[in-house]
Design a protein that fits this description.
The structure is a homodimer.
Chain A lengths: L24 E2 L2 H9 L4 E5 L10 E10 L13 E5 L5 H8 L8 E15 L7 E15 L3 H15 L13 H6 L2 E14 L7 H4 L2 H6 L3 E9 L3 E2 L10 H22 L3
Antiparallel strand pairs in A: 1-7, 2-3, 2-5, 3-4, 4-7, 5-6, 5-8, 6-7
Chain lengths: 266, 266
């Protein structure tokens, strides 16, 4: 499937990607959802409940995009964002107590960012990063339905390591179910911004042979490395299980391949 | 120097780290500044100028903490945060046109997060991440002084790759100087949150021999990998220069070492 077959988010003034030169904004669900679902840590921002506090709150959280009502919906379709974080945080309290006037929920801004490479140009001004970044806006409400909560917990756990849910002690106890809070974010708009390729320098610098003879230009690809699993002193399973070993191997391969492909502009 | 020799940020309700069990909050400058200055992408959040827009704006940016008035100040002393991002963004406009009533500048919340490992426990509920995360609140104003701007550009460039500034075409041209905008953030409070160690499971699960016999527990360490530098087709320098090769080698070593040490709770 190509990105153009994907559903798209509305392009509003607040989520329109502004950039001179090469257009970098994307609004299709597939691109945006893939960035979110491959990012281990999301950054979630929201207005605080204290009107004298000028600073938005910001929390790193785990999240996963899926649809409870259409569990088989492909990533190119509209999906909800499910968030999990530290329970008694201000966010969860706000989600419970401060619906907006329209009772839509708590307005959240969510960022997911992959750094793919350091772009080293002739001049500091043209240094850049290769990256894939998504920003989503939506209204969050706590998930109250037990089936939906259990389903979201499984999605979020398997979003950390493939197939981890079935390879751990399930189902959660009653206490675990009540102490775990999950937010469902109804996404109202979103955008992605992608930069790839190599450095792009000014013509005057490119004609400067002396400069070019001494200044290396290119890209240092970057990705998230997953190291050899380190067992807990209490671990009783001799061999690292297949679901973990496979995950580590694949993430390292995909990470490197993605970063290297980005240099070629793929 | 230990963290306790460091200057500290004030502990206010909005930046006090809340967490049951083991205390994870840190308020010393050294811990917070080190997290920021080793993070390649910061997430910057701020209220939008549109009062009908409930969503805070969020932008991934580059930044570095240092002091222009005391350039030799150690990382354990109060420092300013210098930010660089896409110029004509809403942020830079806001920084120029919307000082708060007290003319202090634009209120920003800045997050810097390192993911150090995936903590795999017996039960999904006790799964966690090892991480180092910092949240800073401060007031941003554009840097107008040419000397300070040039100094900040050098700091930010060398924050991407050590010593890159002197190994590229400097000084910037007049056009580059005017087209580059740098924000100086006067930090008013900040906190860090650190999680390390292995999984910590409930007693009932730890006594469940059948569960323990089949459920691997431990940590998958993670860090940012820097790959083999890929030269641009226009590159004329045969060998990858020392400042890049050294940086790549060191970052990979430090990244892995930090993630592995975190598992031991160091």
């Amino acid at each position: 499937m190509t990105d153009s077959d994907s559903a798209t988010y509305p392009k509003l003034p607040r989520n329109t990607v502004q950039r001179y030169g090469k257009p970098r904004g994307k609004y299709d669900c597939k691109t945006i959802h893939e960035i979110v679902n491959t990012t281990q840590v999301l950054h979630v921002s929201f207005p605080t409940s204290d009107p004298t506090d000028p600073f938005p709150a910001m929390i790193p959280m785990l999240g996963f995009m899926a649809s409870f009502s259409s569990p088989d919906a492909p990533i190119s379709e509209p999906l909800d964002l499910y968030l999990h974080g530290y329970i008694s945080s201000r966010l969860m309290r706000l989600g419970k107590t401060s619906p907006t006037d329209e009772e839509e929920g708590l307005p959240l801004t969510v960022a997911a960012t992959h750094l793919d490479g350091l772009v080293l140009a002739l001049t500091p001004n043209h240094h850049s990063y290769n990256y894939r970044s998504a920003i989503l806006h939506g209204y969050a409400t706590p998930v109250e339905d037990a089936d939906e909560k259990l389903w979201a917990m499984e999605k979020i756990t398997n979003g950390v390591v493939d197939d981890r849910w079935a390879n751990s002690r399930i189902p959660p106890t009653k206490t675990e179910m009540t102490s775990t809070q999950i937010l469902r974010v109804r996404v109202v708009d979103a955008s992605a911004k992608i930069r790839n390729g190599g450095p792009s320098d000014d013509r005057a610098d490119m004609k400067n042979d002396e400069l070019r003879a001494k200044t290396w230009i290119g890209v240092v690809p970057t990705w998230t490395a997953y190291g050899t699993p380190i067992e807990s002193p209490e671990n009783k399973v001799k061999k690292v299980p297949e679901h973990i070993a496979k995950f580590v191997k694949r993430e390292n391969e995909v990470g490197e391949k993605t970063a290297v492909s980005a240099v070629k502009g793929e």
